[in-house]
Design goal:
Blueprint: H1 2-11, H2 19-33, H3 39-60, E1 62-63, E2 75-76, E3 82-84, E4 89-90, E5 95-96, E6 101-103, E7 114-115, E8 120-121, E9 126-128, E10 132-133, E11 138-139, E12 144-145, E13 153-156, E14 161-164, H4 189-197
Parallel strand pairs: 1-3, 2-5, 3-6, 4-7, 6-9, 7-10, 8-11, 9-12, 11-13
Antiparallel strand pairs: 13-14
Length: 200
């Protein structure tokens, strides 16, 4: 638990006042208590967790139960209006923002999104149902995603339309006149999400 919290501390730039960091600490504690096999020993820790989670729900507007499966360096950039189903799965280096919902498409119907690595989800986006989001995907602000999204794509609109990510333009070096053979690096998910927001 403490190794994970130390990594979270670095992920949030060592800023204790980041609400996302508070959520991660409570999440780590909730996961840790399941390692106590004896139910009667685990019970007091479960009670503490439930009170802490309720306090975080009220203070931050982020509902993320400890049953969510998170990869490493998960980051919540802005708080408020965030709901994540306990069935959801996230890969490494994912980013979410305020107003995001990741969960069930229909009440009472199990099946939440499985999200790959380095996925950037813009503010207000909804990712719903038993779908898969590939690696290096950017989801635009307020998009509603209800279908699978392949890797290296952008999802924008309501319902979301899937577009391949465009490579960043190559900046020639001084004195370099031959740029046609240069390869174009892919844009980062954060950059893509910011650009995707403008396409809606």
């Amino acid at each position: 638990m403490f190794d994970n919290i130390r990594e979270d501390w670095r992920t949030y730039d060592r800023q204790w006042n980041r609400q996302g960091l508070w959520i991660m600490v409570v999440y780590r504690f909730g996961n840790w208590r399941y390692r106590i096999s004896q139910r009667w020993l685990r019970l007091p820790f479960s009670i503490v967790y439930k009170f802490l989670k309720l306090a975080m729900d009220i203070m931050t507007g982020i509902d993320m139960p400890c049953e969510v499966r998170l990869g490493r360096r998960f980051r919540i950039d802005h708080f408020g209006g965030i709901v994540i189903s306990g069935d959801a799965v996230f890969g490494d280096d994912c980013v979410i923002r305020n107003g995001v919902t990741v969960g069930l498409r229909h009440t009472g119907q199990r099946g939440a999104p499985i999200i790959g690595d380095r996925v950037d989800i813009g503010a207000g986006a909804k990712v719903l149902g038993n779908i898969r989001i590939g690696n290096d995907v950017a989801i635009g602000a307020n998009a509603v995603v209800i279908t699978d999204v392949p890797a290296n794509c952008i999802a924008v609109g309501v319902p979301a339309k899937i577009r391949p990510r465009k490579p960043a333009p190559v900046q020639p070096h001084d004195g370099d006149t031959n740029t046609s053979s240069s390869s174009s690096p892919a844009t980062s998910p954060a950059t893509s999400a910011a650009g995707a927001a403008g396409l809606i």
